[in-house]
Design a protein that fits this description.
Strand order of the largest sheet: 1-2-3-5-4-6-7-8-9
Distance between the termini: 39 Å
Strand content: 25-35%
Largest sheet: 9 strands, mixed
Shape: globular
Structural class: alpha/beta
Helix content: 25-40%
Length: about 400
C-alpha cells in the first residue's frame, strides 16, 4: 500500500511539473477550493418537479474557455416537506443531449428524490467551437487524459459543494449515478468523496488502461498511442493518478449498484467485473446485451436505478431483479460455404445462448437474401463458426458479429 501511494504521488508530481501546470492538475484526492455560488434560475415546473439551472467555474482551468464553466440542471420534487435526498447524475461519452438523464430525473423526483445533472468536460455547452460533443474528452495523450479525468472529478465534487450549500437538499443523503464514461467518473468520485453515500454505475468499469486498450469504441485513439510507442503497461502506469481501482479499496461505507452488459466490448465486461470486485458487496444486475442493448429496456433500467436510491436513502435494502429482459441483438458479417456460397450482412436476434467454456448460440439473421438461421460456436475476437440454414439451402458459415 505504501509503495502504491508513493507511486501515485510521484506520478502526480511529474504531471504537476509538466507544462500543464500544478494549479491545473492537483491530486484527485484534493477537494476543489470553496467558492460562493451564484443563485439558480427557475426554468419551469411539471406535475412532479421544479427545474432550475445554475453554473459555476471549474476549479481546473483549461485552454478552452468554453470548457471552464460547468452547467447544472436541478430537479426538485414538487411535493416535499423539508430537505430531500439528491442524486448527482453524469452522462455518457459523446452525449448530444440529456434526454436519458432527464428521464432518470423524472423517475427520481416521482419518488421524492432530487436530481442534479452535471455536464462533463468538453461536452454539450462545454464543447469548444469547431468540435463535436465529447471529441476532446478522450485524447491519445495520457497526460491529457489525467487532466480531463481530474477535472471531471473536481467538477463533480464542486457540484456536491453546490448541493450542500442549498438547504433544499439533505446533505446526509447524497448519491451519484453515471452511465458509461459517466460511470467511470462516478466510480472515482465515489472513491474519493466521503459525502456520497450511495452510487449507481451503469455500463462502466475500472482499469482505465485495459478499457482504452481493448475497447471497440476508441480504436483511433489507441492506434495513435501505439504509433507513439505507448503500450498497455505504460498507459496503466501513466493513468495511476486517476485509476478508480486504486482508490476504491479506501472507500468507507456506502452502498452501490452496478449494471453491466455481459457482452459489452465498449467498456469490456471484464472491467465491469473488476469494478464489482473493487466495491463492498454491491448490488449487481447483468444484462444479456452489449454496450447499447440496454436501450431496449431503458425505462425498466431507469426505474431500477431510481428505486435503488429511494430504497437505500430510506434505509431499506434494495434487491435488484435477477433479470431484466433486453434482447441480444447482433450485427453480423456472414460467409457461407455449401450448395451456394455467399457473403451476407445482417442483423440478428439471439434465441438461445450457453454460458459454458465452449459458448454456443443461435440467432435469426435478417439479410438482403432473406432470413437465415445460424447455429454457431464462439471462437475469439467476435468470430464464430456454425451451420447456416435458409432459403432452401444449408451450409457451413463463418461469422464475425458484434452484440449491440
Amino acid at each position: 500500500m505504501l509503495s502504491r501511494i508513493l507511486r501515485i504521488g510521484f506520478l502526480t508530481l511529474c504531471l504537476a511539473l509538466s507544462p500543464l501546470g500544478w494549479a491545473q492538475t492537483p491530486p484527485v484526492t484534493v477537494a476543489p477550493p470553496h467558492i460562493e455560488f451564484a443563485p439558480w434560475k427557475e426554468e419551469g415546473k411539471t406535475a412532479t418537479a421544479t427545474e432550475y439551472s445554475a453554473s459555476f467555474p471549474s476549479a481546473i482551468e483549461t485552454a478552452q474557455a468554453a470548457n471552464n464553466t460547468v452547467p447544472l440542471r436541478i430537479f426538485i420534487p414538487s411535493k416535499t416537506t423539508g430537505p430531500v435526498p439528491v442524486v448527482l447524475v453524469l452522462h455518457y461519452w459523446g452525449a448530444r443531449d440529456l434526454r436519458v438523464e432527464r428521464a432518470l430525473a423524472g423517475q427520481l423526483t416521482a419518488r421524492g428524490v432530487a436530481a442534479v445533472l452535471m455536464t462533463l468536460p468538453y461536452h454539450l455547452a462545454r464543447t469548444p467551437a469547431g468540435y463535436s460533443s465529447g471529441e476532446l474528452a478522450i485524447q491519445p495523450d495520457p497526460a491529457a487524459l489525467v487532466v480531463t479525468m481530474t477535472q471531471s472529478v473536481s467538477d463533480a465534487r464542486r457540484s456536491i459543494d453546490f448541493i450542500v450549500s442549498h438547504p433544499e437538499f439533505d446533505s446526509s443523503r447524497i448519491g451519484i449515478s453515471g452511465t458509461s464514461l459517466g460511470s467511470i467518473v462516478s466510480s472515482l468520485t465515489y472513491a474519493v468523496e466521503p459525502r456520497i453515500s450511495e452510487a449507481s454505475f451503469a455500463l462502466g468499469g475500472v482499469d482505465l488502461a485495459r478499457i482504452l486498450w481493448t475497447s471497440s469504441r476508441v480504436v483511433q485513439q489507441r492506434e495513435a498511442m501505439r504509433r507513439r510507442g505507448m503500450t498497455e503497461a505504460k498507459l496503466r502506469e501513466a493513468l495511476t493518478p486517476v485509476e478508480p481501482k486504486l482508490f476504491l479499496p479506501g472507500r468507507v461505507g456506502g452502498s452501490a449498484f452496478v449494471i453491466g452488459g455481459r457482452y459489452d466490448t465498449v467498456v469490456p465486461a471484464a472491467t465491469t467485473q473488476e469494478l464489482i470486485n473493487a466495491l463492498d458487496k454491491p448490488k449487481v444486475l447483468w444484462l444479456e446485451t452489449g454496450h447499447y442493448g440496454g436501450v431496449f429496456a431503458q425505462r425498466k433500467l431507469l426505474r431500477e436505478v431510481s428505486t435503488f436510491f429511494a430504497d437505500e436513502f430510506d434505509h431499506r435494502t434494495y434487491v435488484p431483479p435477477t433479470r431484466i429482459f433486453a434482447p441480444t441483438v447482433r450485427l453480423g458479417f456472414l460467409a457461407t460455404a455449401g450448395t451456394q456460397s455467399s457473403f451476407d450482412v445482417g442483423i440478428g436476434l439471439d434465441f438461445f445462448r450457453t454460458h459454458t467454456r465452449l459458448e454456443t448460440f443461435g440467432t435469426l439473421l435478417i439479410t438482403p437474401r432473406g432470413p437465415q438461421l445460424y447455429l454457431g460456436r464462439q471462437l475469439d475476437r467476435g468470430f464464430s463458426i456454425g451451420v447456416v440454414g435458409g432459403a432452401r439451402r444449408i451450409g457451413v458459415g463463418l461469422m464475425w458479429s458484434a452484440i449491440l
